[in-house]
Structure formats: C-alpha cells, structure tokens
Write a structure and sequence with these properties.
2 domains, DNA-binding transcription factor activity, alpha+beta, four-stranded antiparallel sheet, transcription cis-regulatory region binding, transcription, Jelly Rolls, 47% helix, Tscrpt_reg_HTH_AraC_N
C-alpha cells in the first residue's frame, strides 16, 4: 500500500473515531480484539506537559502537526509521520492545527496480551540496537513492509475475526521491534529503577540529568533514588554515562553524524576530548575511526 493510501485510510479512520465517546483526556477510543484505536482532534493549539502513559502507543499524524519534547530534544511530525509514545517517560506534547483544518492523529494501543505474544516470538531472536529516536525514520515509516502491515491492520478494523486481527497487530509489532523499538513497545512488566532511568536518558541524552531532575521524573526522592540504584549495583553517574556512550556509538556507526564533536554534543558531552577518552575506555577504539 502506497504512503498516500495509508494516510488516506488513517484520515478516514480519524473521522470515524470522531463518533466515539471521548474519555477524560479527550481521546475517542474504539476497542477491537487485542488493541484499541484512538482518534485525537483539536481545533486550537494544545500543549500537554509531563504526559505519562499506561501502555505504549504508536501514532500517525493525519492533519496539522505534532511536536514531542523529551528534555532538550524536540521531534516534529507532519501528516504521514509515525512515532512511538513510550511508557514511563515524561513528555511535553504540542498539537498544532493546520491553516486549513484541525489537528488530527490516529493512535494504536496494543494490549498486554498481544505484546506478551510478541515477546514470546522474539525470545530467541538476536538483540537489536535500540532506535535512536521515538520518530520512525522515513525508510521504516514509508517502507513497503510497515506501510502494507499498517494498511492491512486499518482495513481489518471491524471486518476480520480476532485471530486475524491478532496476526495483523503482531506483524506491525514485529516490524517495529526488529527496527529497534522493542524497548519502547515491549517494556518489562516490572522494571528496575535503573532500567527506567536508562529508558528516560536514552530519549534525551544531551539533557543535564541531575539527581533532582531524575528523581522528580521517576517520582521518588533523591535519597531513595541513590539507595535503590546502589541496591541494584549501579549509580546515577554510571547509568547516564553508559547510555550516553551507547548513543554516541550508535550515531557514529550509523553515520548520523560526521564528526566526533557532533556525536559528543548530541550525546551530552560538552567536551569532545572527554567523550573520546570515555569512548576508548568503553569500546576499545577511537571514535574518530568510526566517523572517518
């Protein structure tokens, strides 16, 4: 299914969802076996602060634009763009109507049952490097595999039996997880505080992650944060630095940056030389060899 066809199908679903009764957050939900689809509609600009979700959501913008901020990073989405809203990560969201119409988006919320099934299917698969952004890159979002899977999924709403709906949801989940979004879509049911910390830092590695900032986002006191991290055999500094180095490594290997200085800056290091030094200690190689 071509990109324009998927966007047209999503726009039609958004209009259909307008007929559902909105929940307390103003989302019009339609439940189907193993998932529910949400429609979001706003005629005026809207800014939501510290958005927190019970389950991860995949969304596609179908009208207007959406901005998502995590720390100092802001992601921009236009009609046809897709992204993941993860669990346990505070987000600031800005929904902006277009000049000629309202803001609209369609969301897919996968149930725990279908996500557990996806975990089982991926249990023996080799690990995949985590995606560098919540926004799906163009080659994934507009690639044939996801376009066709999403097209089949939307076409099946209210027309296929539960077994086939589960199959279509699993196809979308598997494509996304194999592209590095498993950590966002399939978080462990009960995560350690270190795991929650790493997930948060991974979304905005350049942010100044002080103990006070981290504790506030994780809803614990600073002493409790340090105590629980010590109990898990780690520390705030170690976890933040580990995530930053992993992120810098991903940027260099994937050629998303062309210089070590840029990788250092985007990874939260004010000093390229310190980044290079810590990089050598962690990976046993000079970052410049990866950017050459």
């Amino acid at each position: 299914m071509a990109t324009s066809s998927l966007l047209t199908a999503a726009q039609a679903l958004a209009v259909r969802l307008d007929r559902q009764t909105p929940d307390s957050a103003g989302v019009n939900w339609l439940s189907v076996p193993f998932a529910r689809f949400g429609g979001y509609f706003r005629r005026q600009s809207e800014r939501l602060v510290d958005v927190s979700l019970a389950r991860p959501i995949l969304f596609i913008v179908v009208g207007g634009s959406k901005q998502i901020s995590t720390g100092a990073t802001t992601l921009h989405h236009r009609p046809g763009d897709m992204a993941i809203l993860p669990v346990g990560v505070p987000l600031t969201v800005l929904n902006l109507p277009a000049d000629n119409g309202p803001y609209r988006s369609v969301m897919v919320e996968f149930t725990d049952t279908v996500r557990d099934r996806c975990r089982q299917l991926l249990a023996d698969s080799p690990p995949v490097p985590p995606a560098a952004s919540l926004t799906l890159p163009p080659d994934l979002a507009h690639g044939a595999a996801l376009q066709q899977a999403m097209g089949h999924l939307l076409a099946g709403i209210g027309t296929v039996d539960p077994a086939l709906m589960e199959h279509r949801l699993l196809e979308v989940l598997l494509i996304l997880c194999r592209a590095g979004y498993g950590g966002h879509l399939l978080p462990a049911p009960s995560q350690s505080i270190a795991t929650r910390l790493r997930a948060m830092v991974r979304l905005a590695p350049e942010t100044d992650w002080t103990a006070e900032t981290v504790a506030r986002h994780l809803a614990v006191s600073v002493p409790t944060l340090h105590r629980r991290l010590r109990a898990e055999g780690t520390s705030l500094r170690a976890e933040v630095e580990s995530v930053r180095l992993e992120y810098g490594h991903t940027l260099l290997v994937s050629r998303q940056v062309s210089t070590v200085a840029e990788a250092a800056l985007r990874s939260g290091y004010g000093s390229p030389s310190r980044f290079a030094s810590r990089f050598r200690q962690r990976f046993g190689a000079n970052p410049s060899t990866l950017s050459a």
